[in-house]
Amino acid sequence: MKHGTTSGYKTHGCRCRACTDAVVAYQRAYKQHVRGCGPIMVDAAEARTHISALVESGVSVRAISRSTGLSLAHVRDIQHGRLRKLWPSTANPILGIGLHTDEGAGRIDGRRVRLLIDALAKAGVTQRDIARHMRYRNDQNLALARRKYVMRRSFDRIVVIYRHYAGQGRVPASLLDEVDI
Q1: What is the pLDDT along the chain (181 residues), one digit of tens a residue?
Q2: Kindly report the CA angle at 147 between 141 and 148, in degrees rounded to 5?
Q3: Cα(167)–Cα(146) distance, integer angstroms
Q4: Do residues 143 and 131 touch, judged by C-beta distance below 8 A?
């Protein structure tokens, strides 16, 4: 153990004059910094609100974790309010993710899928046919047409089916541009 350090005082429990002076000096410097620059850690409420807005816009918590470089558990701790304070180096990457970001998102806005499914239905393609193309066991699984968000994989499958029917001339190919693939 080295005397005259905050580690000696806090970790090793040394109460010699040198270690006590080191802790007092550290606390004074910290308080002066807080008075001059504000707190070192920031409130987690803003990051938590932003995570909620991102999830609501279709970005998964896993995608937030990947894009910020934070662990999934850490992002979930922030999301569920288990952390009250964050380092700015943690909060800033979260706040830097733009809303309505689909890049890397596991979920897609359901309106885009509904446009494609409705166009297929108008062309005479039944939900049973769509379910068969998507390899669903029954057409009950097309509840995804009513959901607020759908998984990226399901959206991609619907696009493939739509392109198939567009190639046959049964549906307009221009609709693919409207759903911003």
Answers
A1: 889 988 889 899 999 999 999 999 999 988 887 777 766 788 999 999 999 998 887 788 888 888 788 899 999 999 999 999 998 888 888 888 777 555 445 677 888 888 888 899 899 988 888 887 777 776 665 676 677 778 777 787 788 888 888 878 888 888 877 776 5
A2: 160
A3: 26
A4: no
Q: Using CA atoms, how far apart are residues 19 and 8, in angstroms rounded to an integer?
A: 6
Q: Record the pTM.
A: 0.45
Helices and strands (H and E) in the chain: how many: 10, 4
Q: Tokens representing 90?
A: 């943690």
CA–CA distance, 28 with 151 (Å, rounded to integer): 53
Dmax over CA atoms of the chain, in Å, equals 87
For residue 178, give Cα distances in angstroms to 29, 33, 81, 144: 58, 53, 38, 19
Alpha carbon 125 to chain centroid, angstroms? 35
Assign 3-class secondary structure to 36-64: HHCCCCEECHHHHHHHHHHHHCCCCHHHH
Residues whose CB falls within 8 Å of the CB of residue 63, separated by 6 or more in sequence, listed in order: 104, 105, 106
Contact 178, 115 (CB under 8 A): yes
